[in-house]
């Protein structure tokens, strides 16, 4: 059965595919020939069927586009599905996932190569590829604007753009060095321009605009970087829990001892005022690793070792400068505390120590030709120290950017070169307390928002004009009124601030606020404390003013506005730095016009000029936008704070952007793409429309019954006004796909089966012919082999009893196999069965070995089946064999009987138990053997009945004749006895009693019926077989007490065994004749 699956247009690989299981390669090629051309429609329409779960991938398709709640809900759905990118038209919204995602692999990168913007899911790579293709193929210079608040992922987005450009141009030659420099510029700038804040561990504390220059082939050949508004105040002070710029910690953690000694540094940040450090040890290890990355980047950027040393000397001088301490002398002026810090600063900056100390504690003022040296008080000296540290670091950072630019500069000027810009700049900031820096940042964002609205409207108007669609004016908020409020000449906030800074007299932050209130109180976007309502006055301080930005109201505190705008560095310090022997420091300060009496431009004016230059640059390029959003303040994955996101959506102007984009038509596609996807919804266009694509789309919209207000037909595109119309079309398409798939499958199965039948019939005829031939050949071969086998078998049988040869080897092998099979069924079952089946002559050695192994197996099997009592019997029998075999003639008769520990009759057992319960039996002794015996007197050899009890300690000889209880006659310790027996079949035992047992009258002569049993059991317990002596003599002497000889025992043979007194007066032992 052939399985056919059909996919009718839909995904990024929107090809109508037919997958057939069990089809050969040629058939696959035929199937591919039947497929329709690749659709240019992308995954946007395909993804609409999943919109309830993952939302829409373009906010333009939101039904309720005016609802901020719907906007945020769509973001939340996609975020929880790990989809962090969404479009608003051609604007990319990126939500920081705070975790690695597998969406930047080489495979994902290639997915976006040469794809139309909506042909693949939303991604930063799509923005980068679209900009790159417009640059290379259409020769339109590009810029990518990345904005968002700290921690939203702006820096990472700019890195991904650079990485994509590097991967995209990987096939071009001679670009490796340039790409390496572009990529390595990031870690270098991050080290000197980024810092850890509450919101972000790697927060960019400056704005960056990078131009990448491409040659006519599209290969990067150089670049240029502009930096904006470095947060130099961070050099001298940071909020609790934040850090200074990374390079300070990286230098202290990663520099080797030689460099640290040269820089007069200790590897502990807490030793320096400017680097209070609460970082965990893991962060310090990371700082050391990052320092190695910085060194590697410097090598790639071609910064020489001498320049690197000077750079680190500057960084170290800032650390030492922060540790310079002042004391107040008796005149109330500041003096430098005599320590090594100022000495280290002078050595590292290569300036005169005396002049450095003078510059830090006094100021030279040129008053109309009169030069006056004014000492500084304690506060002024500290200000001068911090101002010098900030100036050194800021100018050094600008020098580093210019040094990067020199390294990135193209070698040759190419008139055909084009440029792509990447702007990574701070987003709109609204903090609980906003100061001068936030004012500058928000002014920058107002200008960029103004540019964004203008360029977006311009793009929309141009597309409508190209397509011949009537342009409908869009009502939107034009924030030029706010820009003018800030930067208008003579009347704007910047002019008022500069006037206050430059006027004679004591200008203060409050006097500046007073001027603002006087001149701007009537402005709709300015609020002062004295003009707002009572409720707002309670919330606003008297040193604050409020601006109504496009993103909402922001209250600014004027404290330090004047100081930060002046940004003064005393002329004495400028002169001193210009004379520095450190070439980098001298280069940083050489451009200052020290002889000019004109006051330098203020910080806000410099920023305004550079910002206007940036706007001019961006206006000359085709923009792409990436808006970055952070989902929570805790840097945690899968946490979506709707309130925080709503705040960012507002100040990024996303709702305004969406409203402008939706003012016209929500969806537009080329006629070819729209017809290719939805042609199955009309019988007039399915399966193929032969006419113009525009006419085919017209028939489609008529079949779908679009209202006139729902769509417009442009020159090359169809425009659909409402997302609902598109959703209904897509849902109809998803339903129709099933019907189409059924039709295609049925037709294909019929065609396939007919073709398969014809092929199988033809194949069967051919196969039958060849199989018959093959079978005949195989049968002939089998017969020949059978004859060879029979002949070999006969020859083997004839020579079976001879040595093994080539002729009989196979026969003998078969004989061995059959013998082994017979043997397996005839093996002896019992250990005493010594029979063994007959074997062929060639197997005799194997038969002997197998017989041995089988006997061992049966013995082992029998042994493992023994009970503990049976095992004990065997152990006793083995011991008896060891003691008596070939030594005593009665041993063979003892083999067949089981050894018993108790040989007493029932009556004697009762007496024994009574005796053992009496005091005569010591407590704790254990009985090991008991039997009846005959004791012979030492004189006269009169026989007397006795009972023998053997315990674990002693041998008891008991008199039981005619008594109700046993009478203890002898108690003999086992460890002091020696026993003599004859080698005959008698049961005589001569117990040799040592002399120390004086109460016994001499050796005991006893006759025991089971003498081997008794001696074996006692010996098994005592483990002393040496106390038993087996004698091979005809006479045995026995002793009396004190070693006197008592008599002689004669041993002889007779027909009947007996023990009696002989005529000679000796004891005669008659053993049975063997």
TrEMBL record:
Keyword Repeat in record: yes
Start and end residues of each stretch annotated as Actin-binding: 611-633
Cellular compartments per GO CC: apical part of cell; cell cortex; microvillus; myosin complex; plasma membrane
Origin: domain of life: Eukaryota
Gene Ontology MF terms: actin filament binding; ATP binding; microfilament motor activity; phosphatidylinositol-4,5-bisphosphate binding
Positions of the Myosin motor domain: 55-734
GO biological process: actin filament organization; actin filament-based movement; determination of left/right symmetry; endocytosis; imaginal disc-derived male genitalia morphogenesis; mesoderm development
InterPro entries documented for this protein: IQ_motif_EF-hand-BS, Kinesin_motor_dom_sf, Myosin_head_motor_dom-like, Myosin_TH1, MYSc_Myo1, P-loop_NTPase
Chief localisation class: membrane
Domain TH1: 888-1073
Record key words, sorted: Actin-binding, ATP-binding, Lipid-binding, Motor protein, Myosin, Nucleotide-binding, Repeat
Binding positions (ATP): 148-155
Cell location: Cell membrane
Pfam families: IQ, Myosin_head, Myosin_TH1
SMART domains noted in UniProt: IQ, MYSc
Record membrane topology: Peripheral membrane protein
Family statement: Belongs to the TRAFAC class myosin-kinesin ATPase superfamily. Myosin family.
Name of the protein this chain belongs to: Myosin-IB
Organism of this sequence: Leptosia nina
């Amino acid at each position: 059965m052939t399985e056919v699956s059909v996919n009718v247009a839909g995904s990024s690989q929107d090809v109508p595919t037919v997958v057939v299981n069990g089809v050969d390669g040629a058939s696959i090629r035929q199937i591919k020939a039947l497929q329709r051309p690749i659709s240019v429609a992308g995954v946007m329409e395909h993804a609409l069927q999943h919109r309830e779960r993952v939302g829409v991938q373009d906010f333009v398709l939101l039904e309720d586009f005016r609802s901020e709640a719907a906007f945020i809900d769509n973001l939340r759905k996609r975020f929880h599905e790990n989809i962090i990118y969404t479009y608003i038209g051609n604007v990319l919204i990126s939500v920081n996932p705070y975790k690695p995602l597998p969406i930047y692999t080489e495979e994902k990168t290639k997915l976006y190569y040469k794809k139309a913007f909506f042909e693949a899911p939303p991604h930063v790579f799509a923005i980068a590829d679209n900009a790159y293709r417009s640059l290379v193929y259409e020769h339109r210079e590009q810029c990518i604007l990345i904005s968002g608040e700290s921690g939203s992922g702006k820096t990472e987005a700019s890195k991904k753009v650079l990485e994509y450009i590097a991967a995209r141009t990987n096939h071009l030659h001679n670009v490796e060095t340039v790409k390496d420099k572009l990529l390595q510029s990031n870690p270098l700038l991050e080290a000197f321009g980024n810092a850890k804040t509450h919101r972000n561990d790697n927060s960019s504390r400056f704005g960056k605009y990078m131009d990448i220059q491409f040659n006519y082939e599209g290969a990067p050949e150089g670049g240029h970087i502009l930096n904006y508004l470095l947060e130099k105040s961070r050099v001298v002070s940071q909020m609790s829990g934040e850090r200074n710029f990374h390079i300070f910690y990286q230098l202290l953690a990663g520099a080797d001892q030689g460099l640290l000694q040269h820089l007069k540094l200790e590897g502990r940040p807490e030793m320096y005022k400017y680097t209070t450090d609460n970082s965990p040890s893991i962060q310090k290890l990371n700082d050391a690793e990052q320092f190695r990355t910085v060194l590697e980047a410097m090598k790639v950027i071609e910064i020489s070792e001498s320049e690197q040393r000077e750079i680190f000397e500057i960084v170290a001088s800032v650390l030492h400068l922060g540790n310079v301490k002042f004391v107040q002398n008796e005149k109330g002026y500041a003096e430098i505390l005599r320590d090594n810090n100022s000495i280290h600063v002078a050595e590292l900056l290569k300036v005169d120590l005396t002049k450095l100390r003078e510059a830090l504690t006094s100021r030279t003022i040129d008053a109309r030709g009169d030069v006056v040296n004014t000492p500084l008080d304690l506060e002024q000296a500290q200000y001068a120290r911090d101002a010098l540290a900030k100036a050194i670091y800021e100018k050094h950072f600008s020098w580093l950017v210019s040094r990067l630019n020199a390294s990135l500069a193209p070698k040759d000027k190419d008139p055909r070169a084009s440029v792509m810009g990447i702007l990574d700049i701070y987003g709109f900031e609204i903090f609980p307390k906003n100061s001068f820096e936030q004012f500058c940042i928000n002014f920058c964002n107002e200008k960029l928002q103004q540019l964004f609205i203008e360029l977006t409207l311009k793009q929309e108007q141009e597309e409508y004009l190209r397509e011949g669609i009537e342009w409908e004016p869009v009502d939107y908020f034009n924030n030029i009124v706010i820009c003018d409020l800030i930067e208008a000449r003579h009347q704007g906030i910047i002019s008022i601030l500069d006037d206050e800074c430059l006027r004679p007299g004591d200008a203060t932050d409050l006097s500046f606020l007073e001027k603002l209130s006087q001149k701007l109180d009537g402005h709709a976007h300015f609020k002062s404390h004295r003009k707002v309502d009572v409720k707002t006055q309670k919330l606003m301080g008297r040193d604050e003013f409020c601006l109504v930005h496009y993103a909402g109201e922001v209250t600014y505190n004027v404290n330090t506005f004047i100081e930060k705008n002046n940004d003064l560095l005393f002329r004495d310090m400028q002169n001193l730095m210009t004379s520095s022997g450190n070439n980098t420091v001298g280069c940083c300060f050489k451009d200052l016009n020290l002889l000019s009496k004109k006051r330098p431009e203020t910080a806000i004016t410099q920023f305004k000029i550079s910002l206007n230059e940036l706007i001019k640059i961006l206006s000359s390029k085709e923009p792409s936008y990436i808006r970055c959003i952070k989902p929570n303040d805790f840097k945690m994955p899968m946490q979506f704070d709707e309130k925080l996101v709503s705040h960012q959506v507002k100040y990024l102007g996303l709702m305004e952007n969406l409203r402008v984009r939706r003012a016209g038509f929500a969806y537009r596609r080329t006629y070819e793409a729209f017809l290719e996807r939805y042609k199955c919804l009309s019988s007039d266009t399915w399966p193929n429309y032969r006419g113009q694509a525009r006419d085919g789309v017209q028939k489609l919209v008529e079949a779908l019954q679009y209202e006139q207000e729902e769509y417009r037909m442009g020159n090359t595109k169809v425009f659909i006004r409402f997302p609902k119309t598109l959703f209904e079309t897509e849902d109809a398409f998803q339903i129709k796909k099933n019907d189409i798939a059924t039709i295609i499958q049925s037709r294909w199965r019929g065609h396939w089966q007919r073709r398969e039948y014809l092929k199988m019939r033809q194949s069967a005829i051919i196969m039958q012919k060849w199989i018959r031939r093959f079978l005949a050949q195989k049968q002939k071969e089998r017969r020949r082999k059978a004859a060879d086998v029979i002949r070999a078998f006969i020859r083997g049988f004839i020579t079976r009893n001879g040595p093994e040869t080539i002729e009989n080897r196979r026969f003998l092998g078969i004989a061995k196999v059959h013998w082994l099979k017979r043997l397996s069924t005839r093996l002896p079952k019992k250990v005493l069965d010594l029979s063994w089946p007959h074997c062929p002559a060639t197997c005799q050695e194997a038969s002997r070995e197998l017989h041995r192994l089988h006997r061992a197996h049966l013995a082992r099997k029998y042994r493992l089946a023994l009970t503990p009592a049976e095992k004990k019997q065997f152990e006793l029998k083995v011991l008896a064999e060891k003691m008596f075999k070939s030594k005593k003639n009665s041993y063979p008769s003892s083999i067949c009987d089981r050894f018993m520990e108790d040989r007493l009759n029932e009556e004697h057992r009762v007496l024994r138990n009574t005796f053992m319960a009496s005091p005569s039996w010591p407590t704790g002794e254990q009985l090991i053997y008991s039997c009846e015996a005959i004791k012979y007197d030492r004189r006269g050899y009169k026989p007397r009945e006795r009972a023998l009890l053997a315990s674990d300690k002693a041998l008891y000889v008991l008199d039981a004749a005619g008594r109700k209880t046993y009478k203890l006659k002898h108690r003999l310790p086992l460890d002091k006895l020696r026993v003599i027996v004859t080698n005959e079949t008698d049961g005589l035992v001569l117990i040799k009693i040592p002399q120390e047992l004086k109460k016994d009258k001499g050796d005991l002569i006893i006759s025991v019926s089971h003498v081997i049993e008794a001696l074996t059991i006692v010996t098994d317990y005592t483990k002393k077989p040496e106390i038993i002596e087996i004698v091979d003599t005809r006479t045995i002497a026995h002793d009396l007490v004190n070693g006197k000889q008592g008599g002689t025992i004669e041993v002889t043979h007779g027909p009947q065994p007996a023990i009696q007194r002989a005529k000679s007066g000796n004891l005669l032992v008659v053993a049975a004749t063997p």
